[in-house]
Design goal:
The chain has 238 residues and is an all-beta fold. It has no helices and 19 strands. The chain starts with 13 loop residues before the first strand and ends with a strand.
Length: 238
């Protein structure tokens, strides 16, 4: 492993990063791009092969906290500290949609996944989710070519009052389950220390896994029924 290229933006902090999904053409350095979200509300797209910034957009008035590409790489979804989610086109540099459903609470996670076009009885070949620090998760179905973006489900997970002496609560994190299509995995501060599996079809929690501590990070294996859950520098494989 070695440093290939480094980009520097003066007087700004890089808050979040995402790779552009693998294109249909052969995977190579010439097709690799990374998008970065900054503390001034800007988004920058960098080309690895050209070692240069290709695009700068300013869809947010506050610092970014999460960023993701759509599954086809044609849209960039970005979330801010104020809870607003912007959908921008890297081709035109224009922000085509701003969603205020999570307004008032920082966005912690944005993730996209493919779906069958009419699955869940809504049009669009993509599902995406937004999670905010107030333990709310919104799930959307989108067809970006037709400018369609429909709210599919809205989840709010209960929690007791924050314990005294705790500087900050554990983050709210969610992800689509790779081995169970139509299932969402959630961890966060709540009544119990646990991982929740929520079915988008049944509209209910279908499985719970107890944890020794509240989770601070979550990653699901795309190749097997494993997930890594971190708490204060430790991790568990389930």
């Amino acid at each position: 492993m070695e440093l290939v290229v480094q980009f520097q933006v003066l007087n700004q902090s890089c808050q979040c990063l995402a790779w552009k999904p693998r294109p249909i053409v052969a995977w190579g350095a010439e097709s690799q791009h990374v998008v970065a979200g900054y503390s001034d509300g800007t988004i920058r797209v960098f080309s690895i092969s050209r070692t240069e910034m290709e695009l700068k957009m300013h869809p947010h008035a506050v610092a970014l906290t999460a960023i993701a590409y759509s599954t086809d790489g044609e849209m960039i979804l970005s979330g801010g500290k104020d809870g607003l989610v912007a959908v921008s086109s890297p081709r035109t540099g224009m922000t085509i949609r701003v969603l205020a459903d999570h307004k008032g609470s920082p966005i912690t996670v944005l993730q996209c996944t493919r779906k069958q076009y009419r699955d869940f009885e809504v049009e669009g070949g993509e599902l995406w989710l937004a999670t905010s620090s107030d333990r709310r998760v919104s799930i959307w179905a989108s067809d970006w070519l037709k400018d369609k973006c429909e709210l599919l489900d809205w989840l709010s997970f209960p929690a007791p009052a924050g314990p005294e002496g705790l500087g900050s609560l554990p983050p709210s994190l969610a992800a689509f389950c790779p081995w169970e299509p139509g299932t969402l995995v959630y961890v966060g501060f709540g009544v119990q220390k646990e991982v929740l599996f929520y079915s988008l079809r049944k509209k209910q929690v279908v499985e719970k896994i107890s944890l020794p501590y509240f989770a601070t990070s979550l990653s699901l294996s795309p190749a097997a029924r494993f997930m890594a859950v971190g708490f204060g520098g430790e991790y568990r494989r389930v």
